[in-house]
Amino acid sequence: MVPSCQVEVLYFAQSAEITGVRSETISVPQEIKVLQLWREIETQHPGLADVRNQVVFAVRQEYVELGDQLLLLQPGDEIAIIPPPPISGGECFCAI
Question: 44, exposed or middle or buried, with CB in 10 Å at 0-12, 13-18, 19+?
């Protein structure tokens, strides 16, 4: 059996709106694949499934893809769910 540890999950923008929290501590296995970690978080907040393909996932302030990469987590590690940057646009102020 793989030991578990507590990690801090940080939610930004739309993910914070969906979960209703900005951060929370969860307990997960110390050895876990990135996609399994996402599923653990999604289990607690099913609404995140709607934005899964739109968010950036970061572990210890490094971006990771939602895939089969194995993570070796330590107690207190930060997991961040970050929305994509907004698309710029808007009015153009041009001199005539």
Answer: exposed
